DNA sequence: GTATCGACCTGATTA
DNA sequence: CTAATCAGGTCGATA
């Protein structure tokens, strides 16, 4: 990977390339390490046509999924609701789950809205970051293909709303007062009202970002019922 | 339909045309009715391009589906796993279900592998048979288009692995000791192992080939729950 | 009717 | 070679 050296415009509205490399460099240079702004890049993914298409899902490469968003076996059934902040402090809630049939981790619900609002296209790159601290927070951003170290430099111009990171985002702790990491169980909207005691003792433990969490009732009783020993282990 | 008279080669390796007519004739002539070899043809279908294409499914004409593979309303949601033996005793498991959107009965999972292995093309004919007895068994075969009573005589030759039935298949009771009819619920591969008591009362009844069967846990509780009144009735 | 979502599936590619 | 991955699909339910 070639280091990509950007000259940042000396304006208030900074435009970042959001490569992990430049991110780190920028963070160190402009803000220092001690400013309560340690968003750690977790991973990036160049979006495939399917990721931005009608399938309304983002496949998260397994290596990253299992490293950063581990689902324990129990939570795996219905997934989790993960909340991410974007560069404006807006919260994006994505359902995150594992598809056993394809052995893949996906963001489903909410993802298509993100693609639409950010006007993401195939080849653009999403980046996921976290800030460790009292209650971890998750962040999501994107950059246009061709920006940063991408291979394709894309002759097409004029794609306004792609992701721009600016330093203010890095201090959004105050900005987004209600934007703390939300890590919830999937709301049980489509689940049985009889679910109440079918899955007794069904509250789940999840370790995410080094934090142990309780997730209530992620699995319906009957789904729990019929799992085979062949289920994947995380 | 013109009766198609075949002269069988007087060799050990019989080549059958698998038309129902010749099947019956052959069975009676060569083996008699009492040889524990009463495979009854149920139906045939000339394969459409879609049946052998990327859709990975076989549409079963409704009249045959409802006659031979009735799905009760409950089983309709997830379908069934039907197992068929081919002429070699190999078991082919196909998911069988009803698609409300197209109002059609289909074999889905497993079908594409069958098409591939048998190298079936559009115009080739699949034939489904059953043997009644202690535990019904299902059989599947195929023949090339142009063989038997087919309309298209197909100028193209040289398609080796198409289906050939030979009399040995008819006595495969011993041959395929492990090849009894498997009539299972869809394996719940992706589901939980803690299955034990959560989904009580979830076993399903299915009448198939005049045999009433219990199919455990075809439907998860939440699926049952969300079934709409619009489900098809059989 | 349309869009989204959840679950399931498969083939091509690759480790 | 086999096994794992994942891009690109399906249907059906829901909103």
UniProtKB/TrEMBL annotation, chains A, B:
Residues 43-145 form the TF-B3 domain. The keyword Transit peptide does not apply. Gene3D superfamilies: DNA-binding pseudobarrel domain (2.40.330.10). SUPFAM superfamilies: DNA-binding pseudobarrel domain. GO terms for cellular component: nucleus. GO terms for molecular function: DNA binding. Its main location: nucleus. Keywords: DNA-binding, Nucleus, Transcription, Transcription regulation. Pfam families: B3. It is found in: Nucleus. InterPro entries: B3_DNA-bd, DNA-bd_pseudobarrel_sf, LEC2-like. PANTHER family: B3 DOMAIN-CONTAINING PROTEIN OS11G0156000, B3 DOMAIN-CONTAINING TRANSCRIPTION FACTOR ABI3. This is TF-B3 domain-containing protein. It comes from Dendrobium thyrsiflorum (Pinecone-like raceme dendrobium).
